[in-house]
Amino acid sequence: MLPEVEIEKLRIILKDGFKKNLSINQIEVDIKDYMKIPDRYIMENDKKILSQSAEVRPIAIARTETLILANQGLIKTYEENDIKEVSWLAVFSDRTCPICEGLNGQIMTNQEYLIKRNNIHPMCRCTALPIQG
Question: What is this structure's pTM?
Fold first, then answer.
């Protein structure tokens, strides 16, 4: 949802943030400082509707991308330790979506988990628990 030049800036910010062990909030600040993040709109009934303002998008991007990469690293560690399946672990709060609630406790392969996890929604806080085989 960003122009290629902004995507490349984001890659650099994330890579630098991980190397420096920056927090999600610190990465958010870098996104605000170095990128041009526009409002995000969706079309609904032939009307353009604001789905996410430019003010909140940096934290949404920082959280989403950080958690995607953290989960990819987690699955890689599991695979290196011969763990082939995981159980979906939802983080329950007033922000937990019905999809994540429904997936909680489901057992799936590592790759099934990554595919679902990366296609759920922005700012998903769910993770995976290893299933010993």
Answer: 0.80
Token representation of residue 54: 């430019």
Name the nearest CA neighbour of 59 among 26, 91, 92.
26
Q: In total, how many domains does the chain have?
A: 1
The Cα–Cα gap between 124 and 97 comes to: 9
Report residue 48 as tokens: 């353009």
User: Whole-angstrom Cα distance, residue 85 to residue 47?
Assistant: 43
User: What distance in Å separates the CA atoms of residue 92 and residue 42, rounded to the nearest whole number?
Assistant: 27
Structure-block tokens of residue 91: 């983080």
Using pLDDT thresholds of 50, 70 and 90, give the confidence band for residue 59.
Answer: very high
Residue 29 structural domain = 4-131
Residue type at position 24: I
Distance CA 25, CA 46 (A): 36
